[in-house]
Design goal:
Blueprint lengths: L1 E6 L4 H10 L7 E7 L5 H8 L4 E3 L9 H14 L4 E4 L8 H6 L4 E5 L11 H8 L3 E8 L9 E8 L6 H24 L3 E4 L2 E4 L15
Parallel strand pairs: 1-2, 1-4, 2-3, 4-5
Antiparallel strand pairs: 5-6, 6-7, 8-9
The structure holds 5-O-phosphono-beta-D-ribofuranosylamine (GRF).
Length: 214
Amino acid sequence: MRVGVLVSGRGSNLRALIDACAAADFPAEIALVLSNKPDAAALEHAASAGLPTAVVDHRDFPGDKQRFEEAMDEALRGAGVQLVCLAGFMRLLSPWFVDAWHDRMINIHPSLLPSFKGLDTHKRAIEAGVRFHGCTVHYVRLEMDEGPIVAQAAVPVLPDDDADSLAGRVLEAEHRLYPLAIRLIGEGRTRIRDGRVLVDGPLPAPPPVTNPAC
Ligand code: GRF
């Protein structure tokens, strides 16, 4: 499966995907890393891994989001991309683009959706007093941070956590979760039915956990 990774910044999830793709049995390869920011650190990670990169800078299309997204669409299609993975891509996508990649575009979000959509998820989780937080990989739909959920990882919120320590714990989980979700899709094991993702094949049920532990 040819994957296009859309980035805007740090690129730690991209690095996790690059590492995952190195395994001989991983069913996906990165066909293009596409950034809307020419100075994104993610582009350097891609280049050092020898991956094809492209920059479509939204500032080159002032007041014309359609043209900006058409340029991205062209780059992705030109690279033969079959699945678009948003990995810290910080532009909201228009309905036509989301429709064009319907069921072929996924995102990773740093919360257990549907809780804490949007920004500052770690700070909001601490303020809400939840005992578990985490991350979600989901298909992209018109509404931000909505769409059929492929996989989630939960991490405990610990008494001394601040937003940074919690973000670090979630990020480690993201780096395991995104490759897992892409593996399931690449192996053709996911089907979307009635807004839910069904996964074929044997999947061990994780044990229940409590926080505080008992
Ligand atoms: C991650 O926390 C991801 O969940 C969110 O943006 C962040 C991107 O981080 N969508 P990185 O660029 O992959 O390091």
